Hints:
Elements: E1 11-14, E2 39-48, H1 79-102, E3 107-112, E4 118-122, E5 137-144, H2 152-157, H3 159-165, E6 177-182, E7 203-204, E8 221-226, H4 244-253, E9 258-262, E10 268-272, E11 280-285, H5 292-296, E12 301-302, H6 303-315, E13 320-323, E14 325-326, H7 335-345, E15 349-353, E16 374-379, E17 383-391, E18 396-400, E19 411-418, E20 436-440, H8 446-455, E21 460-464, E22 487-490, H9 492-501, E23 506-509, E24 515-518, E25 544-547, E26 551-554, E27 559-563, H10 566-583, H11 589-598, H12 616-619, H13 626-630, E28 634-637, E29 641-647, E30 652-662, E31 668-676, E32 684-688, E33 691-694, E34 699-709, E35 715-724, E36 729-739
Parallel strand pairs: 6-11, 6-13, 7-8, 8-11, 9-27, 13-15, 15-16, 16-25, 19-20, 20-21, 21-22, 29-36
Antiparallel strand pairs: 1-12, 1-14, 2-4, 2-5, 3-4, 9-10, 17-18, 17-23, 17-24, 19-23, 26-27, 28-30, 30-34, 31-33, 31-35, 32-34, 35-36
Helix pairs in contact: 4-10, 6-7
Amino acid sequence: MTKRLYAVLAAVALASLALVPAVAASRNPNTDATRSGSVASGYAIVELTGAPVATYEGGRSGYKRTQPKAGEDLNLESSAAKSYSRFLQSQRNDFKRWLNNQYPGAKVVDELGVVANAVIVKLNGVRKGALKEGPHVSRVTNDALYAPTMNVSNDLINSPEVWARLGGPGNAGQGMKVAIIDTGIDLTNPFMSDAGYADNPELDACPQNAKPGGANTNNKVIVCRVYTSGKTTARGSELLAFDHGTHVAGTVAGKHGTTGNVAGTDVSIAGLSGVAPKALLGDYNVFPGFGAGYVAFGGSAFSHDIAEALEDALRDGMDVANMSLGGSVQGPHDFLAEATNTTVEGGMVVAVAAGNSGPGDMTVQSPGSALRALTVGASTNPHFVGIPVTLATGETYPAAVGEFNTYTPPVKGAEFVVAQPAQGCTAITNDVKGKIALIDRGTCTFTTKIRNAENAGAIGVLIVNNVAGDPTAIAGDGTTPAPIIPAAMVSKNDGARLKEKAGKTTMTVDGTKAREFITENADIAAGFSSRGPAPFTYLLKPDVTAPGVNVLSSVFDKEFAFFNGTSMATPHVAGSSALLLQRHPSWSPDQVKSALMNNAKRPVYDSITGTQPTGVLTRGGGRINVAKADSTPLTIVQPSVSFGYFNGRQSVGATRTLRVTNVSGSAQTCAVTVVTAEGDEAAKVAASPSAVALGPGESTNVTVTVTGGKSVPTGDYEGDIKFECPSQTLKAPWFVRVNRRG
């Protein structure tokens, strides 16, 4: 492949530094066994009178027994079980209709019928006891919290299912090597412990005493290299200038079953795990604290240093590389993007952050712009750690905390008011003295907003998020004087409710009661996540999305913290790639990319409302599901179709070829169809042949063509090439851009 060197080397910055990493002074008690008796405030379980299917012994006219006899299994497919299930559903429907009529603000979030006959209600301010008056209600109880055995994001992407197929987490990632091209890895964090690992050859090319604790490598982190063009003299542990790399490494392969302390708290969390916990890691530090790029260019690394790290990783036998970094695209022949493509051709999967410059068009960064890169956008994780904001009227709203003072001691019975101006970026003009100020997120830093409120006499701040989903931890910008008053963030929706009640009641904010809040806000595209297409080349990017908001992983001082960014999404994909290569050692990097991209979960929702499905330039193939990727019947190379850019009076027309391979181990006959997004029919896309019939290991080509000539108007057009196989349907997204004014 042709490479082009530029006279001026681009400085490439950490992708998650586009947003200041949110190091939360917060906790995650759903992984803390000592907190298993706590209550999910704001939720209730409404149990109804009918016995659930598993325990119904009969006796109700017209409905036979469904409880299995001794020695028998529960048969949910029997006519008796189906009939009785419909009866229980009718009870729950009666209650839901009553609830909607009497308390429309309450929301049903789940219901059960087999192991319980119950409806789970998010109260949204409704008094729990009022639900006892509903039809068929037996009792109303609290929704209790229990400690899971791993992070929420692992369950979201279905990695535990693949662990089981590999014999359990003790073997998940075994034999795989993942290069962390980042800021370095702190081996003293318990996530990086090599206890129980076999002796492995170690390659230590780092200066002596480069890391805390003295050792540069161990039997888990088996490589240490550093890249320091124009380096100065190292002093102590200045190799590790920032804990970004340690956080990324933990998400990829943090030791399963680790217990850790959350930074800024006294909370101990058990059951933490990386995505591929048994994988080995290579530490390729391209952001050392004494490097010229880092010192002279604001914490950056040179593109050539990063390319060298890629080359070394290939030489060292790494299977996957994680690059949670990014910079501006340097033309259609971007050096680092082309180096990334070459690395993939050399046999290594390269997962790259899309960047944190969204939500604007064409904001994908280099080297995520590379054709062969596995480029990752960020979506939400359905949990966060926060503190309760309780109104005198009884409603409770959770608020995420961060680096600012966290309402400890609590602020009790305080008035609260909407600040003017709403974003608080200049002096507050209305009366907030002695009150808590509600300030909208946006335009300026959190420090600026909180400082302005403090100067106006406010006793606390609640930032109102400006994107859909959960609130996130808030970090300072480092300017002085740092504000002293406490501050936290509430969600966009909860902020709107609080604004309606401002001046009508009082609130208590208690920072001594931090805990995890499980939410329904999974799979919402992060507002900061960079969007496609790739600049200059108009390639369809990102390729996939993964959890990148409120991600808990390892940091300095043997602690754990919550960070946000596409940097946090990327290691989920790198770890998943390691699992897939362990399961399918003959797969190429492009086939790994196909498995993840063409079997991803949709929809991924928009960052404004959180309810509208996004298009391919935001979510790529969708949010990864590693278990579904593992069972894919086919791989498709390339896994997406980029028809490119047509401007002026260019006639729209192009052809692409997909290489389709049967990787299932059994014969596959799959229908091939084209799906076009509603309203995009002007660009006519066709695929040939209309079906593929392949024996195990066989491959064939599918030709995809776009036509429309000069009649296709300005716009973006997208859809999918669908492969409907007996066990699974794969979707290869396609995209074309037309600009008649260009």
